[in-house]
Amino acid sequence: MEVYEWTPKNIDTIEFATLKAPYYHGLLSREDTSEMLKESGDYLVRYTENEKEKKFQLVLSVLASHAGGLTKILNFKIDASDQGLMLIGTQKSYPTLEKLISALVLIRTTNPNILTSTIPYLLNPVLIKPWEVHHEEITQNNRICEGQFGDIYSGTLNLPKKEPQNVIVKVINLDGKAKLQVREFLNNARMMRILNHNNILKCYAVAPFYSPYLMALEIAGDGGLKTCLRASEVDNRQKIMFMTHAACGLDHIHKNRILHRYIAATNCLVHGDCLKLSGFSLAIKAEAFKIKVDHKLPFKWCSPESLITTTWTQKCDVWSFGVLCWEIFSNGAEPYGYLTSVELIKKILRGDRLTFPDNTPSEMVEFINKNIWSKDKERFTAAEVLQSLEEMVRTITDKDKKANSSPEKNAISPVEIKAESPVEKAEKNAISPISPAEKDKKLEKNPVSPISPAEKDKKPEKNAVSPMEKERRDRTVEKKERTVETDLNAPIKPEKKVSEASSKNKNLSSKKYKKESKTDPSTKVSMKVNKKKKKKDLKELTHVTREK
């Protein structure tokens, strides 16, 4: 393991002599350097590792042109000592970086025939980028936890002419760190800057000018995915949404020709209902990558072909995505348990697959086994996985909408509820239909006096007499009594005619009051008494008249 030494002398020299130079970029990767130098004569100063001397030092990087129009980046080492800064290969030191660069420009201008390999041709300084900020522009607040390279804090990013922005601050101390760890840190910051997507954690700024270095990252308010899955119950609908967000982020990564190489729950963060991919320390800008012996490899997320061919492709990332899906449905459990690396590799190459929990939707298990954990040639791309998951989400959403819009079980819909007309109600309550002939016979047997529509709609209680009915009955009795008195004072008529009139009145009375007399026995007895009394009075009156 190669470890680089940070000497206090170098740190002090860089801190005081170079920080204010507009073309000093601090700790900068070779990949970023090659992207910044675009035209012949472009130059910048950076801090990088010296592989031979196992230490970090200042380097002047220049894009030089050669015969045939070819360009090449030349790196000139700058020696930092008590006397100042000196370009290695020259004899004179300068107190500051700006004076050193100014002297090199002057020498090149006055001596144009000097070889470029000795004195670089400096034309255009490459100034620091917006994402490269000074340490004082990032404020550290409360410590949250410990990370891979250092502590993690809540903080604020204070950029000129912009409102302060709340961020997560990663403090990276690379003193005594291995070369591979340094490159992982630089690679992580670089990839997160390149990728700008809602499902990828954003890196807003880096303070790269001296150690400890600072990274200002987007806030993920709900923390790691594993923590969310273990802390609370997450339903299958939300789990599928998390998978869709991860697939969306992975598709964006692959469209930028980047391999993530570690799609796992430990590298996923959650903010609200949104999942964000992070952890780009192993990522590389390539469509295929040959894995070296000294490279870290997450075996549990490796596809079988990557272990056989030692080549990582986009299809290997898709396999890792399948393991992430298993982690999500297993609520953040550890894949394959705690097997040793040798046992794990044998298990994967043997074709053994992870078994999903029983509560995983069967169509999801079938989809992953058939299209993600399949042979690399048959395996879906990230774009195809995303399209399939989005269709599943739409299907679930449509089912939920139908379930919410349909009436409750056994409930009557508003369309079915309507008022029944009297005819419909009568038909509904009828026991059997009655023909018109039967209806006439029934009326002959039980004649009923006509009833007004208002009275017809009224339904008196059983065996109850309304006040109006009682008053009508009293008037009927009173009328009959007056009729008897009138007959007593009337002129004498033949007995036969009287009996006919009486008989006619009798029939009329019986028809008119039959219903009342049936319901009121007292009225029936009163009528019989009045009839007898009437006959008796008529006989006595006739007898007296004859005698006179």
From TrEMBL:
Pfam families associated with the record: PK_Tyr_Ser-Thr, SH2
Biased composition (Basic and acidic residues): 417-428, 454-485, 537-548
Region described as Disordered: spans on this chain: 397-548
InterPro entries reported for this sequence: Kinase-like_dom_sf, Non-receptor_tyrosine_kinases, Prot_kinase_dom, Ser-Thr/Tyr_kinase_cat_dom, SH2, SH2_dom_sf
PROSITE patterns in alphabetical order: PROTEIN_KINASE_DOM, SH2
KW Nucleotide-binding (keyword) present: yes
UniProt catalytic activity: L-tyrosyl-[protein] + ATP = O-phospho-L-tyrosyl-[protein] + ADP + H(+)
UniProt KW keywords: ATP-binding, Kinase, Nucleotide-binding, SH2 domain, Transferase, Tyrosine-protein kinase
Residue intervals of the Protein kinase domain: 138-393
GO MF assignments: ATP binding; non-membrane spanning protein tyrosine kinase activity
Listed EC numbers: 2.7.10.2
Top-rank taxon: Eukaryota
SH2 domain boundaries: 23-126
Presence of the UniProt keyword ATP-binding in the record: yes
PANTHER family membership: TYROSINE-PROTEIN KINASE
Assigned protein family: Belongs to the protein kinase superfamily. Tyr protein kinase family.
Name of the protein in question: Tyrosine-protein kinase
Species this chain originates from: Bursaphelenchus okinawaensis
